[in-house]
Write a structure and sequence with these properties.
This protein is of the alpha+beta class. It folds into 2 domains: 202 residues, Beta Polymerase, domain 2; 192 residues, Orthogonal Bundle (cca-adding enzyme, domain 2), CATH 1.10.3090. 46% of the residues lie in helices and 10% in strands. The strands form 4 sheets. It has an 8-stranded mixed sheet with strand order 1-10-9-2-3-6-5-4. The protein has a two-stranded antiparallel sheet with strand order 7-8. A hairpin with a 5-residue loop joins strand 7 and strand 8. The longest helix is centred in the last third of the chain and has 18 residues. The chain starts with a helix and ends in a 14-residue tail after the last strand.
């Protein structure tokens, strides 16, 4: 056994004899060392055969360079309960600049939390440096009015094509911030929320800045052991979700943790510990101060990762739906059991099935489902003769998008897609000759047709029209031309579209609001 491996082994033997700590972080200024309980390889179910080869490559190279290297967070939790992790995160005592020197395929990202991303084709291994304990001791958190939040926080673009909004601190050079008495390594707002945290520490300190005990397990590549600081090993086995430290303090540091708790409850079936669940009702309005771009990312994690129906149910039960998506939450509250709500739930179930069968899903379709009820209400505000006008439908979609944009920033490429899906509904319901063939080639046709199918299922569109479009899609080009010509003759002379010399209105063209039940 090499020298550094022997030192690791002896240290772990000593740690095994130590008592596990209480579920509170070390006091400010206290040096936390040797706090972990080490579960050796024969005491846990994690196997390297289930770890990404690229993640193993990063772990081994860091270790060979003399650094500590651990898998950490959700990937360790998922490996323990038999799930396949969607990504692998690494924690180390190497600084981001050290990681970049070790890997040519590395890029440093982020200012709020500086991270190293190591690229292997389409897979990204995220490497984070151990940070000092970020949570203030329980009882030292500021007491503030939860109804107001005047702070600014860095809003990441998250790949969207809208103009990103920046933290006021990010617009100033570090020298200016230091002159104003701002710690450029750690910035915390008046609510106790962490805006920037690049104060590096040890693994014994790093654990206290993680959110839930189930996400605070470290898998050590040096000897394949699992390090547990706060009872996370038992919590994972019991399927229990519990915050590390004082729950109210941790929610104030990052209100998104309330959404994460709901997501883990929905995704993993974990039960939220009573002390962890209790402050949510009191503090949920703090999410109003979270950057909308970040809440967009959280919305996708809630609804596009295979557990959308359950996420919707949990958000509603926890009172978080009306905070995250106010207009949708208000619609569901005022129109329980309506056709638009049932359409939404069926659409989410279909999306879950696509994810589980490894088929692609899109935020455009998700937001069309979520906004269906509010769009219907906007249309009903207009004169009845304008309900089927595509321009009116587009105006209604824009109004519904604006209503949630201050809370969830939908990138323009997705909001435009939602526009197209709704604007195509009248054309799908009243196909006309060659225009039907042009509609078939529209980039949004498939998504719009899926929406039409859902509407027909709940009585908001004609099932015969859905069947016609299905036959058209399954036909060869010659058959399509014949069908469109026949449709053109029918629309001119046939009784199916004419009655008493006037065009008959087809029912259910519009997204319906409360009257759609």
């Amino acid at each position: 056994m090499s020298g550094w491996k022997a030192r690791y082994y002896m240290r772990h033997v000593r740690l095994l004899k130590r008592k596990r700590p209480l579920l509170t972080p070390p006091a400010a200024g206290e040096t936390a060392t040797g706090l972990a309980r080490v579960i050796t390889r024969d005491g846990h179910p994690i196997s390297r055969s289930r770890i990404s080869p690229d993640a193993l490559r990063v772990l081994y190279r860091l270790n060979e360079a003399g650094y500590q290297a651990f898998l950490v967070g959700g990937c360790v939790r998922d490996l323990m309960i038999g799930l396949e992790p969607k990504d692998f995160d690494v924690a180390t005592n190497a600084r981001p600049e050290d990681v970049r020197r070790l890997f040519r395929n590395c890029r440093l990202v982020g200012r709020r939390f500086r991270l190293a991303h190591v690229f292997f084709g389409r897979e990204i291994i995220e490497v984070a440096t151990f940070r000092a304990s970020s949570a203030p001791p329980p009882g030292d958190e500021p007491i503030i009015d939860d109804e107001t939040d005047d702070s600014d926080e860095s809003q990441l673009d998250a790949g969207q094509d809208d103009e990103p909004q920046h933290d006021a601190h990010d617009e100033l050079p570090d020298a200016t911030l230091e002159g104003r008495g701002v710690d450029v390594e750690r910035v915390i707002d008046a609510h106790g929320r962490i805006l920037r945290d690049n104060v590096y520490g040890s693994i014994d300190e790093d654990v206290w800045r993680r959110d839930f005990t189930a996400n605070s397990l470290y898998y050590n590549i040096a000897d394949f052991s699992v390090w547990d600081y706060c009872g996370g090993f038992e919590d994972v086995q019991a399927r229990r979700l519990r915050l590390i430290g004082d729950p109210e303090t941790r929610y104030r540091e990052d209100p998104v943790r309330m959404l994460r708790a709901a997501r883990f409850e929905a995704k993993l079936g974990f039960a939220i510990d009573e002390a962890t669940a209790e402050p949510i009702a009191r503090l949920r309005q703090l999410m109003a101060g979270v950057p909308p771009a970040r809440l967009f990312d959280e919305t996708l994690k809630l609804f596009l990762t295979g557990h959308g129906v359950r996420s919707f149910e949990v958000l509603r039960a926890r009172g978080l739906l009306e905070v995250l998506l106010p207009s949708i939450g208000e619609f569901v509250r005022r129109h329980p059991g309506s056709a638009p709500e049932r359409l939404l739930l069926r659409g989410l179930a279909n999306t879950d099935a696509r994810v589980q069968s490894d088929r692609p899903v899109t935020p455009t379709y998700l937001f069309a489902l979520l906004l269906y009820g509010p769009v219907g209400l906007e249309i009903e505000k207009m004169p009845r003769e304008r309900w089927d006008d595509p321009a009116s439908i587009v105006d209604a979609v824009d109004a519904a998008v604006r209503a949630i944009y201050t809370r969830v920033a939908i990138p323009r490429r997705f909001s435009l897609g939602v526009r197209d899906m709704f604007a195509l509904q009248p054309r799908l319901e009243t196909p006309r000759g060659k225009r039907a063939l042009r509609t078939l080639e529209h980039p949004r046709f498939r998504a719009a047709f899926d929406l039409l199918q859902l509407r027909a299922e709940f009585g908001m569109a004609d099932p015969a029209i859905v069947e016609w479009w299905q036959r058209l899609q399954q036909s060869d080009p010659q058959q399509r031309a014949s069908m469109s010509e026949a449709l053109g003759r029918e629309s001119t002379d046939g009784p199916s579209t004419r009655r008493g010399g006037r065009r008959r209105r087809r029912g259910g063209r519009r997204p319906r609001g409360s009257s759609g039940a």
